[in-house]
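Students often ask why inverse folding is considered easier than folding. One informal answer: many sequences map to the same fold, so there is more than one right answer. In these notes we will look at a single instance of the problem. The structure comes first.
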């Protein structure tokens, strides 16, 4: 018998962690455990001490490459959207309020979801989202003109989410870092250039230039075609979207990590392998893999 000891400050809480020999076929795997700090991962089963929770046995995930979503993962899209829309509405002497912002944002989100589902073309998004808003306001302004002005404002706006810059700096040089975005090419390029993070990224993948959108397999196939020698089994997709980032990563055969700052319920469809609530939490997670 192989014995390990889990000790707490109170000797009454000492337990025995027992593993039988021979080890099962997955002997190079281990039980990932959430234990108090004095407990250690080991091969085998645990006699519960009340503080230990064992997950299913899992192969060690050696991560060499990290794909990072941009909007609402590294950048706050809500802040950029708010500033760009307010400037646009003021420019065209249109009313602006929190209600107007919410109406536009809902319409914009709906168009991007339709794009993810391959139900509309990218070129339709701008017209459709402003048509919804301007029709509501009773305006006959040219939808494409208003959209272009808005996108110019958006391309010069970036607001880092807490911990984003520090995370990129900590990961740079240790992992191959790839940005993976569904955004419009020239808009995202402008925001990335202004942010100063391009030197920290090894590759930038924008769906408009790849001819496919997340979560489509074609998007990730195009990415890996530019990454010779990189294995999908050693790659992690980090993002906030369940429908594009997590589903896309799963379809592509990658590991997935959901950035879930609002602590939403974990989906049960198997698309999320890991989750974090704060960007700095990714570092200790990677150290355990």
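Output (designed amino acids):
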């Amino acid at each position: 018998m192989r014995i390990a000891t889990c000790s707490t400050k109170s000797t009454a809480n000492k337990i025995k962690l027992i593993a039988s020999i021979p080890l099962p076929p997955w002997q190079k795997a281990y039980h990932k455990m959430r234990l108090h700090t004095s407990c250690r991962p080991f091969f085998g089963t645990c006699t519960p001490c009340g503080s230990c929770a064992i997950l299913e046995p899992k192969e060690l995930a050696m991560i060499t490459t990290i794909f990072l979503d941009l909007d609402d993962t590294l950048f706050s899209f809500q802040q950029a959207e708010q500033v760009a829309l307010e400037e646009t509405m003021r420019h065209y002497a249109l009313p602006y309020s929190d209600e107007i912002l919410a109406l536009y944002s809902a319409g914009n989100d709906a168009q991007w979801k339709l794009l993810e589902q391959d139900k509309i073309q990218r070129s339709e998004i701008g017209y459709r989202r402003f048509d919804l808003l301007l029709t509501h306001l009773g305006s006959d302004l040219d939808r494409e003109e208003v959209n272009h002005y808005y996108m110019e404002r958006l391309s010069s706006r970036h607001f880092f989410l807490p911990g984003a810059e520090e995370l990129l700096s900590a990961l740079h040089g240790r992992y191959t870092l790839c940005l993976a975005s569904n955004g419009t090419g020239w808009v995202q390029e402008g925001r990335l250039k202004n942010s100063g993070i391009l030197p920290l990224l090894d590759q930038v993948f924008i769906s408009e230039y790849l001819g496919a959108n997340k979560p489509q397999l074609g998007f990730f196939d195009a990415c890996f075609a530019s990454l010779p020698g990189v294995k999908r089994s050693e790659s992690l997709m980090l993002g906030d979207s369940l429908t594009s980032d997590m589903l896309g990563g799963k379809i592509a055969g990658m590991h997935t990590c959901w950035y879930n700052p609002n602590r939403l319920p974990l989906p049960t469809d198997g698309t999320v392998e890991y989750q974090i609530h704060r960007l700095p939490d990714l570092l200790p997670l990677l150290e355990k893999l």
